[in-house]
User: What shape does this take?
Amino acid sequence: MERITPEQAKTKPYTWAHHVARYRFACQYCRNKVVLDVGCGAAYGTEMLRKEGQAKLVVGLDINLKQAINTFGLTLVHGDALELPFKDESFDVVTVFEVIEHLDDPQKALGEVRRVLKPGGIALISTPRRDL
Assistant: This one.
């Protein structure tokens, strides 16, 4: 599983720019919302959703939080996209950026996203795999 961290911005500028652009796009949907960032990785994007997106609350979830930067005071949860550890209809916005292509059952993950979204909620998902 590949991950990008802020330290790689200089060595992988193209990849870094794409990741940041996704989060900047998502920020417009987060103001005063409760947001879940599935596959938060280093959590720099989770912090962008909180700060630039002005979300009410952002929860970052990842199966491996070793690289997560929690100097932001974020809520970070260890968990699996195939079994999200949240109640039904808990979030206004769910982001899933560059995650589903790594999962054994992408459809199950999408079902989990739908389950935790509030009615009228927004799911923002990206993958380089058109077949998914």
Remarks:
- The mean pLDDT is 87.
